[in-house]
Design brief:
Elements: E1 2-8, E2 12-17, E3 23-28, E4 33-37, E5 42-47, E6 54-59, E7 65-70, E8 75-79, E9 84-89, E10 96-101, E11 107-112, E12 116-121, E13 126-132, E14 138-143, E15 149-154, E16 158-163, H1 165-172, E17 196-202, E18 208-213, E19 219-224, E20 228-234, E21 239-246, E22 252-257, E23 263-268, E24 272-277, E25 282-288, E26 294-299, E27 306-310, E28 313-318, E29 326-329, E30 332-337, E31 340-345, E32 351-356, E33 365-371, E34 376-381, E35 390-395, E36 411-414, E37 417-422, E38 425-429, E39 435-439, E40 444-448, E41 455-458, E42 463-468, E43 471-476, E44 481-487, E45 493-496, E46 502-506, E47 510-515, E48 520-525, E49 530-535, E50 541-545, E51 549-552
Antiparallel strand pairs: 1-28, 2-3, 3-4, 4-5, 6-7, 7-8, 8-9, 10-11, 11-12, 12-13, 14-15, 15-16, 16-17, 18-19, 19-20, 20-21, 22-23, 23-24, 24-25, 26-27, 27-28, 29-30, 30-31, 31-32, 33-34, 34-35, 35-36, 37-38, 38-39, 39-40, 41-42, 42-43, 43-44, 45-46, 46-47, 47-48, 49-50, 50-51
Length: about 550
């Protein structure tokens, strides 16, 4: 898990990502709603009008609006551009648990402890439908992403699916006469109701806290106080329980489908977030906090980002690193994507698959070292437990069919990092943090005693850069001695200019530019994360942060 952003605040009960901007809304147990920029790590605004905890929160997909619902029985619709509450919807008789906008119609869906679910029209500011049938608090209710359905979860131990097509036909058909025909009951003259229960899903042994639809498949996920996450399938006529994911050891507060992968995320009052493989029903990853129970999860609609709210704030995170491993040689970029090594020609912009990589690692390739003399690559894979990291040595096939590229046999060994040091030699930093020199057959040629280091980087033929916690050392592999050292903490990336006369050392918030002898020429500090960099032909270093492209001259 890669934590991108963390906040400290009162208990977070509700979360919503903005569909386009790098924003996340957090509704708190103390009545405040916070609007955060998770890329800049700043609080943009806060909205403090609710009395008591705010549990429901949701951004509108198109309009500059969001909706909130709280323990004061009020639903509030806000405009974040005008920075104020536009109006309040009254009608619920107890705490409001969730509030969601419809993706298309001008509707808000609210679930409440008064055992009802209500649908409101936020343009006419009226309640257009009350869904009754649960006989305990309704903890959650959500619209289906494309069909006229609602799913709800209740402490009466059921999950219900409601058909709301009648409501759509009535309220959104041209010339519908609404007020005079219908009685107060929400049933019109011909007895057709606006919303009917389609399925009642029974299977949880305790109250259900959350239920959500799958974005594209006819599936529902639910989480309950029986500590289980259940997957349900439905068709036109019935719905049934597919599977149960067991592993949490306290109430499951929230469960969602990953928008683009066969995964489910759930979190719980047992202070953990768990990731489940949908096909195998097994836990893939678990993330724990020491003291904070988790209450809510949010998935970004189009990025692989998630947010989780807990007792003392929230975290925005990714499940895995998405930066591809790459290497540049002349006008060619080599990079890894979807188990293929690909090649992009900068001149012709032709992008082809060069070879297929062997699978067998559940971790993405972390880094690559390319050897143009032998047309060979070293691909390093980082495991969560660093000692299990491996590298693969491949020689790239001469001619390859880009539709169906070869899958040559690679040589795999354990090691944290592997880097070329000569035409037919490469260096491996092994799990004991000692340095091995190997040949093209992946056989150890010699072992080299090096100063303690936790990472190695390319530094031209016969040399390496060794990184320790507070500096980088230029090391001559032939002479087995250190040539120079500079102080810079936690270097993540090293970028050499094409003639290797200059090198840029990139840390999280700092850049140091040095010459070939590793003498520092200039230092740059950034308040925001430094992401990557490249040298221009003219000797200018161009680099990116989370939200800017900048440049630096070697003179500083």
């Amino acid at each position: 898990m890669l934590t991108k952003f963390e906040t400290k605040s009162a208990r977070v009960k509700g979360l919503s990502f903005h569909p386009k901007r790098p924003w996340v809304l957090a509704s708190l147990h103390n009545g405040v709603i916070q609007l955060w920029d998770y890329r800049m790590c700043t609080l943009i605004d806060k909205f403090d009008e609710h009395d008591g905890p705010v549990r429901g929160i949701d951004f509108h997909k198109q309009q500059p609006l969001f909706v909130s619902g709280g323990d004061d029985y009020k639903i509030k619709v806000w405009n974040y551009k005008l920075r104020r509450c536009l109006f309040t919807l009254l009608g619920h008789l107890d705490y409001i648990r969730t509030t969601f906008f419809h993706h298309e119609y001008p509707w808000i869906l609210s679930a409440s402890d008064d055992q009802t679910i209500r649908i409101w029209n936020w343009q006419s500011r009226t309640c257009v439908c009350v869904l009754t049938g649960h006989n305990h608090y309704v903890m959650c209710a959500q619209f289906h992403p494309s069909e006229d359905l609602v799913v709800s979860a209740s402490l009466d131990q059921t999950v219900r699916v409601w058909d709301i097509s009648g409501l759509r036909k009535k309220n959104l058909s041209p010339g519908a006469v609404e007020t005079d025909v219908r009685g107060i009951t929400g049933v019109d003259l011909f007895g057709a109701s606006d919303a009917v229960v389609k399925h009642v899903l029974e299977g949880h042994d305790r109250g259900v806290n959350w239920a959500a639809f799958h974005p594209t498949m006819p599936l529902i996920v639910s989480g309950a106080d029986d500590r289980q996450v259940k997957i349900w399938r439905m068709n036109e006529s019935k719905a049934w329980e597919l599977d149960t994911c067991r592993g949490h050891y306290n109430n499951v507060s929230c469960a969602v489908f990953h928008p683009r992968q066969e995964l489910i995320l759930s979190n719980s009052e047992d202070k953990s977030i768990r990731v489940w493989d949908m096909s195998k029903r097994t836990g893939v990853q678990t993330f724990r906090r020491d003291h904070d129970r988790f209450w809510v999860l949010g998935a970004h609609p189009n990025l692989n980002l998630f947010a989780a709210g807990h007792d003392s704030g929230m975290i925005v995170f990714k499940l895995e690193r998405e930066r591809p491993a790459y290497a540049v040689h002349g006008n060619m970029l080599y990079y890894v994507k979807d188990r293929f090594l690909r090649q992009l020609d900068f001149n012709s912009s032709k992008d082809t698959a060069v070879m297929q990589l062997r699978s067998g690692s559940k971790f993405p390739v972390f880094s690559m070292s390319y050897n143009p003399a032998e047309n060979a690559v070293l691909l390093c894979t980082r495991a969560t437990n660093l000692e299990n990291s491996t590298y693969d040595l491949y020689s790239i096939p001469k001619e390859s069919d880009s539709q169906n590229p070869d899958a040559p046999e690679g040589k795999r060994s354990s090691g944290l990092t592997a880097v070329w040091v000569a035409r037919n030699r490469f260096a491996v930093l092994d799990r004991m943090h000692s340095l091995l020199i190997k040949n093209l057959k992946n056989e150890i040629v010699k072992k080299v005693q090096v100063p303690s280091c936790e990472e190695i980087f390319y530094a031209g033929t016969g040399s390496l850069l060794l990184r320790d916690a507070d500096g980088v050392t230029l090391f001559d592999v032939q002479q087995k001695r250190s040539l120079a050292t500079v102080k810079i903490a936690k270097v993540k990336y090293v970028v050499w200019s094409s003639d290797t006369s200059h090198v840029a050392l990139l840390a999280k918030h700092a850049i140091m530019i040095c010459n070939r002898k590793l003498e520092s020429l200039c230092n740059i500090h950034e308040n925001i994360r430094v992401k990557s960099g490249a040298w221009d032909e003219s000797g200018v270093f161009i680099y990116t942060t989370s939200n800017h492209i900048k440049y630096a001259l070697t003179s500083g």
